[in-house]
Each structure stands twice: as structure tokens, then as C-alpha cells.
Amino acid sequence: MSCPDCGGDRVTLRVPADLRDHAGSETVAVCRDCLRVQPIDAGAAEPATPSAVDESIPDGDGGVAFLLACGKLGSLALHRPAIVELFEYAEAAGVDVYLTLDRLADTVPNPHFDVSRRMEQVDEFL
Question: Is residue 50 a contact partner of residue 66, using CB atoms and an 8 Å limit?
């Protein structure tokens, strides 16, 4: 399954019930190259784990929350409350948000947002 934005490979993830308002579906596809997140039909592909997107992302609900937040980092103005809620959820689940973002800056080829700039901005409101 290819990303409609960059053509990269996508990974299917099952979204925990309490995060589905942020995902728009019970299943999402996350691009390994640009980290864009799109809702998809539940039966489209077998769900994987967050580390299948990038090995620096922890598995579990925290990793899913982290990736959902990354999908919204293209526009802080539109998605700030959701980003804060998702990153707080991820941190409560044991994800080191800043360390994981820092690692993504080196491993994700073409993120749809400027990782280092967003790290600074996220630091201001978390």
C-alpha cells in the first residue's frame, strides 16, 4: 500500500478506542517516509505495530498515540489541542516524546513537518 502523498510504503495500525476521535477510524495507515496518517477501512490490511513504521517508535498504545500526533504536526495552529492530548497520552504510556522525535529526525527520510522546529514548538506547550 503506497502513500498517496509521497509514494512511500505505509503501515496499518489499529487505533485504541479512546484515541479514535483523533484518528477518524479504528484503523489508520502511516507512511514510513513522510509520517502522514490517513484513516482506512478496518479490513484493508493486517494491522502491524508502531515499530514497523520506524524502530525508534515504541509499540503499544503510546506508540500509536505518538504517530497520530506526528500526523497532525503539519499544522500546529489547527491541531494544537489534539497534539498536546496525544503526546500526553503517549508519555503516560511510557513514550519519551522528545527522544523519539529526535531519533525520527535521523531515520525518517521525508517527514511532512520540520522535526527539529516542531520539537522546539512542542516543548513550549507540553
Answer: yes
Q: Exposed, middle or buried: residue 106 (CB in 10 Å: 0-12, 13-18, 19+)? A: exposed
Q: Which residue reads 512511500 in cell numbers? A: 8
Q: Is the dihedral of CA 110, 114, 120, 126 positive or negative?
A: negative
What b/e sequence results for 72-83 when a residue is b if at least 16 CB atoms lie within 10 Å of its CB, and e otherwise? bbbebeebeebb
> How does pLDDT run across 32-91, given as a tens digit for each residue?
999 999 999 877 678 899 999 999 999 999 999 999 999 999 998 899 999 999 999 999
Q: Cell 507512511 belongs to which residue? A: 31
Torsion of CA 56, 30, 119, 114, to 10 degrees: 120
pTM, to two decimals? 0.94
Question: In this structure, what C-alpha cell is assigned to residue 62?
Answer: 503510546
CA atoms 123, 105, 92, 41: torsion sign: positive
